[in-house]
Amino acid sequence: MPIKLFKAVACATAFFTSALLAAPLAYVSNQLSGSVSIIDTGLGEVAATVAVPGKPAGVAVAPDGKHCYVSTPETHGFAVIDTQTRTLVAQVKVSDGALGIAASPDGRRIYVADWYNNTVAVVDAGNYQVLQTIAVGQSPSGLAVSPDNRWLYVANRLGNSVSKIDLKNWTVKQTTPVGSHPFGLTVDSRGERVYVANVQSDDVTVLDTKLMQALATVKVGMLPYAVALALNDSRLLVTNQDDNSVSVIDTATLKAIGLIGVGEKPEGISTHPDDRHVYVANWFDSNVSVLDAKTLRVIKTIKTGEGSRAFGQFISK
Amino acid sequence: MKKIALLSLSAMFMFTAVANAHGPVRQKAEEEVTINAPAEKVWGIIKNYDDMSWLPGIKSTTADKGNNKGSIRVLTLKDGGTITEELKKYDDKKMTYAYKITDMSVAKTITHSGAEEKVPVLPVDNYAASIEVEDKGGSALVSWKAGYYRAYMNNNPPEEMNEEAANTAVTAILKGGLANLKTLAEK
Hints:
Order of helices and strands of chain B: HEHEEEEEEEEH
Shape of chain B: elongated
Largest sheet of chain A: 5 strands, mixed
CATH class of chain B: Alpha Beta
CATH class of chain A: Mainly Beta
Number of domains of chain A: 1
Number of helices of chain A: 1
CATH architecture of chain B: 2-Layer Sandwich
Structural class of chain A: mainly beta
Strand content of chain B: 35-45%
CATH superfamily of chain B: START domain
CATH superfamily of chain A: YVTN repeat-like/Quinoprotein amine dehydrogenase
Mean pLDDT of chain B: 89
Low-confidence stretches of chain A: 5-20
Low-confidence stretches of chain B: 1-22
Number of strands of chain A: 28
Strand order of the largest sheet of chain A: 7-6-5-4-28
Largest sheet of chain B: 7 strands, antiparallel
Strand content of chain A: over 45%
Oligomer: heterodimer
Distance between the termini of chain B: 68 Å
CATH topology of chain A: Methylamine Dehydrogenase, Chain H
Number of strands of chain B: 9
Helix content of chain A: under 10%
Mean pLDDT of chain A: 94
Order of helices and strands of chain A: HEEEEEEEEEEEEEEEEEEEEEEEEEEEE
Radius of gyration of chain A: 19 Å
């Protein structure tokens, strides 16, 4: 009897603990092998690999963590992964050049940028219907929604600009010039600043979101791809594709304060909910570097699939 | 009956065309070779950016700024074609350099989808590569890596300019170059 009771308690405890302490998952799109690696960030290893047709590229995770959306340019839309069963549950057609993808903070919408048609589609996250298509600048790529769910920022790569979309009426409020070929972007937790990586001019433009004016341009490494904030927005980390490194910028002084060597051709970058660890997908090396934003060191490298891109916010909360 | 067959055939074609209507995906190639010679000797053969005589198929090389970043070199191929490359990184200590193709001559012109297409001597676009020599204590490990897109940047590429053509051509260069480097260094 005591043994039985002990077992039951242990079992219940284990279940309770795992349910409570389930570590956030990182979803890494592997474009060349046509899959998504699901990394258990608690264990620091790949827990599952889901085959995703259509050359998966961009990643967004629903705020409740139940679904992961992966843009699939070859099948003109995005794939939906059920994160509990870790299976592909839907393939949604949006338009020709689907690449950048983001989920709204309230979980109701999915935004998909179309690289060819210069538009952003607003998709209902409940039934996957396209509700609206908004014309933006040339070759829109990175997308970021403000924390208050009011604005959507779009990096227009060939337009060399960032568009600010009003999510109340789905219209572009303003488009502001930034550096040359902006690609990945992020908005801070107060919604006051947008940081965008300019691939061609090797710098990051810092935008004041209220005025939609550049506050600064900060030089980084070669071919910066995407950006992520960590440590209460105090540090901005930028993947430099051609330098195999991540630039670290102090957001108070807007100066580069460090450089972290990662794998070959780093692309997607996302911050763990602990606000300290930052995950970087290395396209050429087909792995992920886990960085400590405090010590500016690589603490782990995790093997993923061929051609890891993970463009977007790819870690669940 | 014939008509139906034709119709369904054309429908199939259309479907294929639609299914493939997407942008190119970046490709990669990576080759390695272990050379039974000191790393310094191997690096000595390839270290001068203005000398690519170790790569089969190259007739001559010129570079305007030697091994300095930004140096532009022109590779003239034995068949007369040219490839222009910019030196992006150079590290003598780490025995590595990286470069990017900025221009190429046309190998041939083909007609595809009713338009004339110029096929470059290396059927790629946006090509960047790096080569590195690693000291393995007496022997050397040389790795040559390249990232690139197919030559045809629109949808539905002709076979001369698709991913397979790009991958085949790049892999042949990397393999051929490293094999010849091994021969030269082990002499």
